[in-house]
Amino acid sequence: MNLKTKKTTPRNTTMLQKSVWILGICLILGFSVFMLTSQPAYAVRVSLKRVVFDENKRSEILTIINTTAEPQTYRLGWRRYRMSGGKGLSVIKEGEDDSDILWADDMIRFAPRRVTIPPGSSQQIRLLLRRPANIQQAEYRSHLWIVSESKPAKFDAEPGNKKAMRLAVQPAISLPIFVRHGDLNVETSISNAQLKRTDKGLNTTFTLNRTGNRSIYGDFDFTCTNQSEELILHQVRGIAVYTETNMRNLDFDIPLSENTAANCSSIKITYRADPNDADFAGKTLAEATATLQ
After folding, report:
1. What is the pLDDT of residues 79-95, one digit of tens each?
2. Cα–Cα distances in Å, from 96 out to 93, 101, 145, 267, 273?
């Protein structure tokens, strides 16, 4: 049987170009999301990681800090995100149903909405809560979006390579703002904890469960339990479960030295509330043990 090499026709070339173009757009969008969630300190730095308006709080001051060597202009606005058990946060698109989430942006005012900050200086943003008279007992949330208007930085995958893709990155940060009203409660547990060895240490997967009418936010400690003294192997900060979901499937690598990994076959997973949580103030919310199978 004779095999003939298929020639590339102009139509095939066009389809290939379109495929490369679509792939490029996907990479840019994915890289932009990475820049949002990683929150690089050199691009957008703020004084708070979240704001919670409880029954006694009516105002808050957020400080934007310019640590760069150039003047930076920032624009502020509201964004709405949904949390899912498997994917974390995702932007709610225009026209998408978001009636299962109670939003806070209608009751919060902030100023200024656009600022230019000289190098090494800062600017305060004042947030003011106007709680409606008929507000229902619940937790409300929106995300304050802070984006730099400076010319985006460009990156070449391979400098000098004409086929390399150029990515323009516009730094931004998303800050969750909560309004809590009434008698709220939350309970947390950890289930399905598993542990396995990797080339660089250990890996653990588990489900963080939430029940109640408010969100939870806290930190993880991973402790080796089968040694003479308990040793904290790894820590992860700032993991939340919002009210629109009752669980999150989590996956963490625990980097260890070769000796430590060999001697550790069981870990304790501890989830503690954020120290600034008005209700729990750093208390342990959930614990579980994962053992190598």
Report:
1. 999 999 887 899 999 88
2. 5, 12, 19, 41, 32
How many Å apart are CA 266 and CA 271, to the nearest integer?
17
14: tokens are 């066009």
Residues 6+ apart with CB under 8 A from 234: 221, 222, 252, 254, 255
Q: Where are the beta strands (DSSP E) in 114-185?
A: 114-117, 122-129, 138-148, 153-156, 166-169, 172-181
**Model pLDDT for residues 9-33, shown as the tens digit of each residue:** 444 444 444 444 444 444 334 434 3
Q: How far apart are CA 85 and CA 93, in angstroms?
A: 18
In sequence order, which residues have a C-beta less than 8 Å from that of residue 65 and are 6 or more positions away? 45, 46, 47, 117, 121, 122
Given phi > 0 = left and psi -120 to 50 = alpha, else beta, which region is 55?
alpha
Report the alpha-carbon distance of residue 113 to residue 73 in Å, rounded: 11
φ/ψ of 121, rounded to 5, equals -110, 180
Share of the chain above pLDDT 90, in %: 60
Structure tokens, 91: 């932007």
Q: Which two tokens stand for residue 28?
A: 């840019």
What is the sign of the dihedral through the CA atoms of 221, 226, 227 and 230? positive
Q: Which 3 state secondary structure label does DSSP give 24?
A: helix
Q: Tell me, what's the pLDDT at 171?
A: 74
Report the SS3 class of residue 206. Answer: strand
Among 123, 103, 100, residue whose Cα is nearest residue 113: 123
pLDDT at 199 over 80: yes
